[in-house]
Amino acid sequence: PESVGWMTDAWRTHGSPLDILSALGFAECKDEQLTVLQQSWLTADTAAMSLSEATEILGRLGKATSLEGQLEVLKVTDNERRVVAALDNAVAPLFMQRPQYRLVQKTFKGDLTATPTHIAAFLDGLEEGCFMSAAQATELLAGLRLETSRRFECCHVVCARVIDKWRLTEADHTEVACYYGWDGPYASQLVRSTPLEDAIKLQNTVLSHMGRADHTEYARSRRLPGFAARIIAQNIAAGSSGTRSDTCAICLEQCEDGSPLWACGLCANRLHARCCRSWVLQRGGEMTAECPYCRGPAAQGKFTIGELPAKSPEAAREDAPMEGEEEAALVPPAAKRSKSD
């Protein structure tokens, strides 16, 4: 029926969603039902459905109290799988390159003296190349020969740098996956209205979400947000034809005129004031932070109110700073005090 025609190419084995439900009903055992579900998504644009995923879907179908509810389960499942497939494609270029990954493996494989801080510092040395896939993280962690307590801390360091978090599973990464893993519903909510064919926007969305996390304690790094912001800035600059971007590289929202902004003194690109302050603190302070667009010293930028339509001379005089009034510091005094405390 047209009302359930939202899945066409993917239902290759059993036809329409109604046919899927019919095949499940005629299956003689649970194993056959799981096979029906796994074979229903045999497409080139999505990964093969795992047994655990099929088991979860079968459980959701069993809890549905009506035909409409079961069809909705299949529809939501299809959407989540399409989102995950699009995200897989978007972040794949960010995976750690093979030579660098082999170097990391060689450095720490079988090293009984490796510490989480040592591993974090080594990965940070790769800068924007520090992000890895869940599969790479699994292989790397498998090669570590550490005592249980230290291994758990190293899992945090490694998994915090995994860019395809929807691939993190407890089976491969122990309970650390509970901290960093994204399920299908969460990934769908994260993407929201972003077109699935726009790989760069999807990539920026994932990086922005990762960059806003607090990596100081578990990932042992203040630099991860900066690496994410740099890649976003490069993506934005590549799509802006050399003009100044009005997209904040931290949160991906527009830098609207009339709102508090920070402007780089070298490239004139802008960030939201609140995003800039948070980012600078994560980077260790205003003396070490860099503009994510041009890597110029962030201390040379300044806080402003976004450009507004021209004001009358009277209004301009009213808004002018009082004599002796100082320009706002990059990091407010209160923030500096709290950091030193």
UniProtKB/TrEMBL annotation:
<feature type="region of interest" description="Disordered">
    <location>
        <begin position="306"/>
        <end position="341"/>
    </location>
</feature>
<feature type="domain" description="RING-type">
    <location>
        <begin position="248"/>
        <end position="295"/>
    </location>
</feature>
<dbReference type="GO" id="GO:0008270">
    <property type="term" value="F:zinc ion binding"/>
</dbReference>
<protein>
    <recommendedName>
        <fullName>RING-type domain-containing protein</fullName>
    </recommendedName>
</protein>
<keyword id="KW-0863">Zinc-finger</keyword>
<dbReference type="InterPro" id="IPR001841">
    <property type="entry name" value="Znf_RING"/>
</dbReference>
<dbReference type="InterPro" id="IPR013083">
    <property type="entry name" value="Znf_RING/FYVE/PHD"/>
</dbReference>
<keyword id="KW-0862">Zinc</keyword>
<keyword id="KW-0479">Metal-binding</keyword>
